[in-house]
Amino acid sequence: RKPVSIHTLQSLYRKNEPITMITAHDFPSAHVADHAGMDMILVGDSLAMVALGMEDTSEVLMEEMLLHCRSVARATKGAFTVGDLPMGSYEICPEQALESAIRMIKEGRVKSIKLEGGKEVAPTISKITTAGIPVLAHIGLTPQRQNALGGFRVQGKSTASALRLLEDALAVQDAGAFAVVLEAVPAEVAALLTQKLSIPTIGIGAGNGCSGQVLVQVDMSGYFPPGRFLPKFVKQFGNVWAESLRAIQDYKTEVKSRAYPAPEHTYPMPQAEFSEFER
Ligand code: KIV
Ligand code: NA
After folding, report:
1. pLDDT at residue 77, rounded to an integer
2. 254 given a catalytic annotation
3. What pLDDT score was predicted for residue 228?
4. Domain count of the fold of the chain
5. Active site residue: 183, 254, 276, 278, which one?
6. Are residues 214 and 227 in the same domain?
7. Is 84's C-beta closer than 6 angstroms to any atom of ligand 1?
8. Are residues 93 and 191 in the same domain?
9. Do 96 and 221 belong together in one domain?
10. Residue 53 pLDDT
């Protein structure tokens, strides 16, 4: 397929066709997402938890993001790639943010970057976009600020906070963001923001009135052990962990019983040659 560009995304938006986005954290997870025809692939800093086993996203380093971005970029032929700027790589000043964004493009090999925040990051977004790097904004629940938000909670539930969200959305749009992620926002608020903006909104826990949707791949595909907490907005479309568990258990059983490897899995040797060898 033809690689998705900023123009492809704008044309989907104009046609009111939902934009599909999913996270990937390595070569195989990007390969399958690209093969499925996702419009966008995000190397989210959620890889801290889903790929590196960390408690939260605040621990992941720029170098780790770059390594994973590169492996995702190698597998992605069609989708438009986005690299998440990790916490600490963009907050100090717009210059620091631009430096980090440039590393994402040059070393991470992604096509654009995402960063969290509203009004207060507008100068940062404008600095990065002025350098020709597309920026995906992210407002509402911003996990990098979970300590300040008091945990993972829905944003924009009161009139006042919905108004702040609208201000943030307009500010990141005016700063030049090509789209904005709305995370954990009431569906009505997200739909209204989508109407008021002239750039696409990508929802996660923000209802179906957005211009597109994003989910974390391991969540939506069920690639996690039973009992893990899933936010309300996640729909589990598969059970990859169970399938992987079944396959590995079957392998184990067949090795223990010597059912595997069977003759069809082995390299034959001509009988005459073997007789000679055996003597
Ligand atoms: O890190 C991530 O996966 C994200 C998406 C959930 C938007 O930021
Ligand atoms: Na993220």
Report:
1. 98
2. no
3. 87
4. 2
5. 183
6. yes
7. yes
8. yes
9. yes
10. 95
DSSP three-state, residue 137:
strand
CB 169 within 8 A of CB 203: no
Position 150 scores a pLDDT of 84
State how far the Cα of 262 lies from the Cα of 162, in Å rounded to an integer: 63
Q: Specify whether 39 is located in the same domain as 148.
A: yes
Which parts of the chain register pLDDT below 70? none
| Same domain for 262 and 188 | no
For ligand 1, pick from 45, 110, 115 the residue to mutate: most ligand atoms within 8 Å of CB: 45
Tell me, yes or no, whether 228 and 247 share the same domain. Answer: no
Q: Whose CA is closest to 23, among 56, 72, 59, 88?
A: 72
Whether 16 and 142 share a structural domain: yes
What angle is formed at CA 184 by the lines to CA 212 and CA 194, rounded to 5 degrees?
40
pLDDT in tens, 134-183: 999 999 999 999 988 888 888 999 999 999 999 999 999 999 999 999 99
Could you tell me the CATH number of the domain that includes residue 72? 3.20.20.60
- Report if residue 1 sits inside a domain: no
Question: Which domain range does residue 147 map to?
Answer: 6-238
For residue 221, is it within any domain?
A: yes
Mutate to test the pocket of ligand 1, among 26, 43, 54, 84 (most ligand atoms within 8 A of CB): 84
**Residues 164 and 253 reside in one and the same domain:** no
pLDDT tens digit sequence for 182-199: 999 999 999 999 999 999
Query: In angstroms, what is the span from residue 141 Cα to ligand 1's centroid?
Result: 10
The candidate with the shortest Cα–Cα distance to 198, out of 214, 212, 179, is: 179
The answer, yes or no, to whether ipTM is higher than 0.90 is yes
Q: Hey, CA dihedral for 122, 84, 52, 40, is it positive or negative?
A: positive
Whose CA is closest to atom 8 on ligand 1? 44
Residue 22 is encoded by which pair of tokens? 């999913």
